[in-house]
Design a protein that fits this description.
alpha/beta, six-stranded mixed sheet, 6 helices, 20% strand
Length: 193
């Protein structure tokens, strides 16, 4: 079972992102579940969503305490809550930012993970460019596909298209592709170094 925990703020599409990830896994013939955990249900409040993906039926229903992948849609949360609680030593870290891990004061955490398991992606910038709104969830799913290779980009695109038909879906798919390519470019540069 592969478990993903997504941290963000209300209005960033955290819950929808988890749902689209579960649909992408479903398109690949896997079992999946996605569910949120809300505190204060208002725009800007911290929100956590969970997604489990497995080859067999999933019977667990509790929050994910030890994620295989941590997606952080809003890096200001590092100052507010312990986003890294329970993070696995061999896990993946995906952070929506245009800053470095050093700038965010989490370089030590990123360096403890296996090489290539921690990336930053300016997903909000990709969303703003392609969608016209600062909603990074679809872009981060494209980045997730490149980082973990646990779901394919075409499955992510189908899930986005199902959630957002028409022009909005196409724009979100463009943001997901841009983020996917961005991560692949980072991985190639890291391999060459």
């Amino acid at each position: 079972m592969f478990q993903v925990r997504i941290h963000g703020r209300g209005g960033q599409g955290v819950v929808t992102g988890a749902e689209m990830l579960s649909v992408a896994a479903f398109f690949e013939g896997r079992h999946a579940q996605a569910f949120p955990s809300f505190g204060s249900e208002r725009t800007g409040a911290p929100v956590v969503a969970f997604c489990r993906i497995a080859d067999n039926e999933i019977r667990l229903r509790e929050p994910i305490l030890e994620p295989d992948c941590l997606i952080v849609q809003d890096p200001t949360l590092f100052k507010v809550i312990d986003v890294f609680a329970g993070m696995r030593d061999d896990g993946y870290l995906l952070v929506n930012t245009n800053k470095t891990f050093s700038d965010l004061h989490i370089r030590e955490i990123a360096e403890r993970l296996p090489k290539g398991h921690a990336v930053i992606v300016p997903a909000t910038e990709f969303a703003q460019k392609h969608v016209g709104r600062p909603v990074p969830n679809a872009a981060l799913l494209g980045a997730f596909a490149a980082l973990t290779r646990f779901v394919r980009l075409d499955s992510v695109e189908r899930a986005i298209e199902q959630a957002f038909p028409g022009k909005i879906g196409a724009a979100n798919i463009a943001a997901a592709r841009a983020a996917h390519d961005f991560v692949l470019m980072q991985q190639r540069a890291e391999s060459a170094a």
